Amino acid sequence: MPDEKPTTDHVARAEKLVHASPDAVFDALTFSGTDEDIMFGATVTSDWQPGSTVTWAGEWEGKQFEDSGTVVAVERPTRLVVTQETSTAGGETTTHATHTITYTLTPEDDGTRVVLEQDGNDSAEQAEQFAANWQASLDGVATYAERG
């Protein structure tokens, strides 16, 4: 019986109503620098042009990390698509995964609804873990955008 590769078709999803304009939310999503509310305080570096590199460097659960990706699409202020290559150390092995993250922004009476979808997850459980992390990340985006 051949080894089966894990499927990567599980999608993590997070959603948040942000009490700010689509432009303010888009500014938060495309922030470069370091802010405690953006990506858990990681330093984000990019010029946010399609084809450009984006990096996230910081500390997660007591360990230093640096993830990188590519800006795929920028449709201000309604859609942002990036890839993110992550490395996860587990024991003596390190696994690498590339995810596509799509942010969709929709204006509403009370602000902007942000929907984030991340593909490339190996299991429903992994998608759930990422969804919880992304929900916390969107909470930070909301804090940043709402403080104006």
Describe the structure concisely.
Strands 1-8-7-6-5-4-3-2 form an eight-stranded antiparallel sheet. The longest helix is centred in the last third of the chain and has 24 residues, at 124-147.
Describe this protein's structure.
This protein is an alpha+beta fold. It has one domain: 2-Layer Sandwich (Alpha-D-Glucose-1,6-Bisphosphate, Chain A, domain 4). 22% of the residues lie in helices and 50% in strands. It has two helices and eight strands, in the order βαβββββββα. The chain has helices at 22-29, 124-147, and strands spanning 10-18, 33-34, 43-45, 53-60, 63-75, 79-90, 93-108, 111-121. An eight-stranded antiparallel beta sheet has the order 1-8-7-6-5-4-3-2. β4 and β5 (63-75) form a beta hairpin. α1 (22-29) crosses α2 (124-147). The relative contact order is 0.27.
